[in-house]
Specification:
This protein has 414 residues and is of the alpha+beta class. The chain has 5 helices and 21 strands. The protein has helices spanning 9-60, 124-159, 165-198, 248-256, 400-413, and strands at residues 63-69, 71-87, 90-93, 99-104, 111-112, 117-121, 200-202, 207-209, 219-220, 229-232, 237-244, 262-266, 273-282, 292-299, 311-328, 340-344, 350-354, 356-361, 364-369, 376-380, 391-393.
Amino acid sequence: MTTPNSPNPSSNAVSRADIEQAQLTRRRWIWGISALVVIILATLIEGLVEDFLTKHNGSHQGLPVVLAVAKSSNVPVYLQALGTVTPTSSVTVKTQINGQLMQVLYHEGQDVRTGELLAQIDPRPYQAQLIQYQGQLARDQALLLNDQLNLKRYQLLWKQDSVAKQTMDTQAAQVAQDEGTVKIDQGLVQNTQLNLTYTRITSPIDGRVGLRLVDPGNYVQTSDTTGIAVINTLDPITVIFTIPEDNVPEVVDQINAGKPLTVEAYDRQQNRLLATGTLITIDNQIDPTTGTVKLRAQFPNKKNLLFPNQFVNINLLIDTLVNATVVPTAAIQPSTQSPYVFLYNKDNTVSIKQVKTGVTADNDMTVVTGIAPEQSVVVEGADKLTDGASVTVADPTQPAAATAKKHAGGKHNK
């Protein structure tokens, strides 16, 4: 039997094991916290070192950028539009008489002159008709001459009181009737002679003939709708294009001032200048469905680069900005308040300068206010810049991004 004061061996063993387990757990927590502290300190030290190196190197080298110098130049202001090439004159040549087409004397795509023979219709029916009408005219002229002589005799006899006045008046009426018949005959002769000229189909304008529409041997009529040939005047040639009604006052002001407006025609991709011409007219009304007005420009077309019904891009020169400040479009940085540029300073830093932009010309943009000619602005490498940042002018033949990568690699090697 144990006494109350005697120790319990099993109780002592449990207490010792609990103590050892608690000590082990505590050591594990200490090791984990220590490792975490070491990792955090290493990260902080690495960041501080990198920041120090960046600031140290930046103070000497700065961020690489590519610069461009603002220039002063004359900038043309264009209105851009889509246009359709139309011939100066377009004529569908049709027959003016009925008959068999004997010859087609033109070649497809041939350039022809006014009055040049294109086709020949069989003239024989009209030649025979002309002979008939000429004979009828000769007969009626002889009858008229005979009746005129009789009228003179009756007039003389009436003065001698040898014939009744009624007989003389009847003869006078007969002469008038004969004169009318002769005029009818003369009209028939002239009409037939005109029809004979129509058997020779000639070109009414200078231009180029299209594809042949009818072959020899066919019977052509005045009611035919297709015609015999289509002739288009290609040099000079015109382009019809439209501009918004808001731009009409600008164009009208230039026209009223008597200033010729230059028009440039480009191909569909706007890569090739096809022709340069002048504006010749503007329509007298605005299309209410589209809110646009039509204009016509004329172009020399000796090389036939403009073709009827061809779609072209039109640049209408309406003004020229004299001595405007121009910078590359890449230098303009967008902003919700106002666009700005990074202005390069002599101490190898940049500063933000808000600007007011104007028109765009190719890859450049005009600046109305904010900078002056001969000032340098950043055109590449501006994405990492801040106001007052130090910069290094990079080689403009290499992208600033590549230069930045090169500098970053050098710092990493150090």
